[in-house]
Design goal:
Blueprint (H helix, E strand, L loop, with lengths): L3 H5 L6 H24 L7 H11 L2 H65 L1 H43 L3 H12 L1
Helix pairs in contact: 2-4
């Protein structure tokens, strides 16, 4: 008797061969089911079954079964790989989003902590006092600087006037003498 399993499945891990054999078994079941319709309601005999197997054992039919099994194996592997790649892509996207959310959460927490710290500093009497003293010292510094500039200008003018008198340049007198000429 012909052994179609041995013709299709070569090793223990021959997945395309096992799929080809399952295709053969499905074809055989369909042949069995449809046989009575084409043979006056009669069930297939052992000879009919042997003839079916011998037709399936033709090299062209075996090659066709092997190709269909290999295609099923490739399609299954491609679908499985596609599904797994989608799962991995989702996992990577989720982990990246979670990482970004964690970083953003940390930045927000640090920002709120800084704002809270500044608010607490402003709320205390000591902080208010420090701000008042700083403003007062800054105001005194400006007043002192303006006063020193003004005082320096007055002293410079006095030194200039003394130097002019010592040299004999009296601008006031010369200006008075020149006034009648201008009129």
């Amino acid at each position: 008797m012909l052994n179609i399993y041995a013709a299709l499945v070569k090793t223990e891990y021959d997945v395309p061969g096992a799929l080809a054999y399952s295709i053969y078994k499905r074809c055989k079941a369909e042949w069995r089911t449809g046989f009575p319709a084409t043979h006056d309601g009669n069930e297939p005999t052992t000879e009919d079954e042997a003839e079916f197997i011998s037709i399936c054992m033709l090299p062209e039919n075996l090659e066709n079964l092997k190709q269909r099994g290999a295609k099923l194996a490739r399609d299954f592997a491609a679908k499985s790989l596609e599904k797994r790649m989608a799962e991995v892509a989702d996992e990577v996207a989720e982990s990246e989003v979670i990482r970004q959310i964690f970083l953003l959460e940390n930045r927000i927490k640090v920002g709120f902590d800084n704002v809270e710290k500044q608010l607490h500093e402003k709320k205390t009497l000591r902080a208010w006092g420090r701000d008042i003293v700083t403003a007062f010292i800054a105001g005194l510094g400006v007043i002192l600087a303006v006063g020193l500039l003004f005082n320096g200008y007055v002293r410079f003018a006095a030194i200039n006037a003394t130097a002019e008198k010592a040299v004999g340049i009296d601008l006031e007198t010369q200006q008075r003498k020149a006034e009648p000429l201008r009129k």
